[in-house]
Specification:
246 residues; mainly beta; Jelly Rolls; nine-stranded antiparallel β-sheet; 4% helix; globular
Length: 246
């Protein structure tokens, strides 16, 4: 008997990523130079290894922060949930469980940086932290959801929500966002993507659907390959053709 796929806290829809060539590209957000929160609600199905680069790592949200590129990201390395920031030097905090306890189930992954301390939260609970001061990761970088631009480590699974803030949320605020996904903290929010048929549209008429940003800043993400699906049931049911993203 197939186990139903249930979405945390009222999510019924999600963007589905095939782990091969699906991703969403978001324009550069305006951020404080040394403060950020990034979070995502994901259903991780596992790593899709490339024969030429057989290393288990998968990117959820990428805003630079690889090799010598300044930025920040959420990713999965082996069995670890990871939050990373970089000003040319990379700093990472991680928490195990991506494959042992959290694979094939919904997980809320959040990273914060207040200019002094990096913190990683899993399902609203602090999992790891690291002290490092004044890491300036810059502003003018595109954000990619479901991929890494450097080695194209695409995400395999579902992503129901992505939030980016230009400040570090408190532990209480992260816990609130985990518990109440339809009413996230708004102060400092610069990117708010939530999966729903009303928020996936071709708004500029170029034939490519956008994942609409509800933050008010208009940082709509272009959808390449990923599809909007209904995830209450398993297997996931793709919506009507008008809602399938090409």
């Amino acid at each position: 008997m197939t186990t139903p796929v249930r979405v945390l806290s009222a999510f019924r829809h999600a963007m589905s990523f095939d782990g091969v060539d699906d991703y969403v590209e978001v324009p550069a957000q305006v951020l404080a130079s040394t403060k950020v929160t990034v979070s995502a609600r994901v259903f991780f199905k596992g790593h899709m290894l490339e024969p030429a680069y057989p290393v288990e790592h998968t990117f959820i949200v990428e805003h630079g922060a690889y090799d010598t590129v300044p930025g920040f990201n959420l990713w999965i390395y082996g069995d670890g949930w990871c939050f990373q920031i970089s000003d040319g030097t990379i700093y990472t905090v991680s928490k195990s469980g991506a494959k042992t306890t959290n694979i094939n189930k919904w997980t809320h992954d959040a990273g914060t940086y207040d200019g002094d301390t990096m913190k990683l939260y899993i399902n609203g609970v602090l999992g790891s932290q690291y002290t490092v001061s004044n890491v300036n990761f810059g502003n003018n970088i595109r954000t990619y959801i479901g991929r890494m631009t450097y080695r194209y480590r695409e995400f395999y699974g579902f992503i129901a929500e992505v939030l980016i803030y230009s400040r570090a949320l408190s532990a209480e605020e992260v816990a609130w966002n985990y518990r109440y996904p339809w009413n996230p903290i708004r102060n400092g929010l610069v990117l708010y993507l939530t999966a729903h048929p009303s928020y996936v549209k071709d708004i500029d008429g170029d034939g490519v659907f956008e994942w609409l940003d509800l933050s008010g800043f208009g940082n709509h993400g272009k959808i390449y390959g990923a599809t909007l699906v209904e995830v209450i049931k398993s297997p996931s049911r793709i919506l009507s053709p008008s809602r399938v993203i090409k």
